[in-house]
């Protein structure tokens, strides 16, 4: 039996255990640079016992942010990021930078730069049509991922996680619903997977062997016409054959079209509506139930889908979704997953892992209300956690 609390290899790294703090946008970078609040957010989770904490979201370009307050990887960001990784390392954990381009999830109005999509599409976020990159611009995007990975290494990160999920740009290229291109990056599944494979290989060539290189991959979009599980399995098999990734973190859902498939539990429609400006708020009241669907919460709610990837692949896999207690962690290890990733439960209790390690009967205080989701605009937090 694999012990979730034993040291484990992730590419060139040795982590103190097999638990990863999943990327959950922190909302603590008002000037698109590291703040003391962001450092403390990750230091506290590291002190709580995780093997690796993931900083989200480190955009590869200024137009690749979901809004202008997010970090984008540039030399000016390195000093602050170095302070963050130093703080994490001082607590005995490793640090990963989630890099990627938000694509159709980017807010062009906030960024004051065009959002990108594989095919012509109107953005309800930016209230304008998105830009469709040509093949030369796609090459520039690949190069931007390489630069971001190198800056992550310069900043002291131990790993990079490339964002291939949630209909961010690379995930949107995989989706037949969003990608209607007729060139080498559209049409067949192989063409729609091309951008993911080229980015993974380029990042691996740039930092592989020194940094662990992982990717967050959608198992399915959860939207008719979007990426399906069988197609995602084939893409995962190609990524494995390329040998560019040290692990895959398996996810689901679309920030653009169906976000609750990732989260499960209560849909915080009322709280989300309050974060929106007037006209958008009225639109959300009309369409909010279709956008934020209800998926009942259960432990390891993505496990059934992820099992199919475990059967087909030999590469390390990270199980995400409803990992809150030792029984679930042990189930993941018994079924052959190499790591587990935790998100909301650590917002509620950053020290949860140390408590579990000292007493395997410990249960998370997270009630899966998802009221933390709308707080991304003011500093991601559990609204039930006492303010210190």
Summarize the structure.
The chain has 388 residues and is α/β, with parallel strands linked by helices. It is 37% helix and 14% strand.
How would you sum up this structure, described in words?
The strands form three sheets. An eight-stranded parallel beta barrel has the order 3-4-5-8-9-10-11-12, surrounded by seven helices. Strands 1-2 form a two-stranded antiparallel sheet. It is 37% helix and 14% strand. It has helices at residues 36-47, 75-90, 108-111, 135-154, 169-174, 189-192, 194-207, 229-242, 260-263, 269-274, 278-291, 303-312, 326-334, 344-348, 352-358; strands spanning 8-10, 13-15, 19-21, 52-59, 94-100, 122-123, 128-129, 159-164, 212-218, 247-251, 317-320, 339-342. With 388 residues, the protein is an alpha/beta fold. It has 15 helices and twelve strands. The model has no long low-confidence stretch (mean pLDDT 95).
Neighbour order of strands in the largest sheet = 3-4-5-8-9-10-11-12
Task: Look at the helices and sheets and give the structural class.
Answer: alpha/beta
Rg from Cα = 19 Å
**Number of DSSP E strands:** 12
Mean pLDDT across all residues, rounded?
Answer: 95
Amount of beta strand? 5-15%
Main beta sheet: 8 strands, parallel, barrel
In DSSP terms (H or I, runs of 4 or more residues), the helix count works out at 15
What overall geometry do the principal axes of the alpha carbons give? globular
H/E series: EEEHEHEHEEHEHHHEHEHHHHEHEHH
How far apart, in Å, are the first and last alpha carbons?
A: 40 Å
Helix share bin? 25-40%
Residue stretches low in confidence (pLDDT < 50, at least 5 long) are none
